[in-house]
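Listing S7. Sequence submitted for prediction.
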Amino acid sequence: MNLLKTIIQGKLEFGNQKSYDKVYKMFVYRMENYYKSDVILDPEEVFDDEALTLTVPRYVGTNLEKSWKNCVALIEYCAQFAISGEMGAWQTDSGKIINSAMVEPESDKAVVIQFRKGKKLADEKGKEEEAIEALTKAIEKYDKHAQAYERRANVNVVLKKYHDAMRDYNKCLKLDDSVPDAYYGRARIHMQNGDIDDAIKDLELTIKKSIALQPIYWAARRVKADCLITQENFKDAAFDLKLFTNRKFDKDNPNFKWRKEALSTYGKVLLDLEEYEEALKAFDKAFEIDEKTDEKDNGKRLYFRGVAKQKAGKSGFIKDIKKAADLGVSEAADLLAEIA
């Protein structure tokens, strides 16, 4: 039987003692009678009597696929009685995802209905005010709903209500400091305000609170590199960009569309670090990605690749720089004049 790497993390909140006690008893009963204790999680370790939650900060181990499925089924059962939170579970083999599940409360409880409605509306353009109304109702029903604050913050960002968004991100993290999306959203506001040090701190927390199987982990790596570049910290920026550009993303992963730009940025950082051969490799890989590109961006990419070729002592650099000049890149035209 094949053992797979297993990761489980998250929290389900039950809101009142009655629901919590019921879930705990049913968890133990089902674990012993339905699954013969083959569920990975130990109830004594994951149930928090004071917070009235089922909490898994992060479990990492190796387990059979059957054990993982039993565990997910039991978590899904518990989620019927929860009023907020989410629990993620993954199994991988050599880095490839074999099984995955994201479990959230799904019931006829008013707070759950309003949150799910608001979450859905938040993804629909032009429905922002309706989304805020639904999420606010969820918060009014349960004022410790961290996910509702985080989602409402995201909608406020879309509406450019950054003060309200920051307030909601802070409230979310005060209630639950394990929500990576809230750190990421707060970091973007810090960047807009020019508070780069604070942005980097929040992006580092995004990375710490998420795992490499989640898209937000890699988005934080890429954006953190941009912040470091503004501080001319090219060495640390190169570290994040190397990790990002070496990662294989599926087409449905939101990071997929950033591959070309990330490779180009990585190439420019390597130029600043005087690692010319590696810079050239990065630019070549960027050009291998076949996607529609703005002519000006393509011209700049050609210019920097030409510079990398020149610095690395490679032939063909004049051709790249000339093409860049023809596409309107002034730096390329200036460099051509110097060469002439």
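Caption to Listing S7: primary sequence and predicted structure tokens for the chain studied. Residues 17-33 form the longest helix (17 residues). The two ends are 68 Å apart (CA to CA).
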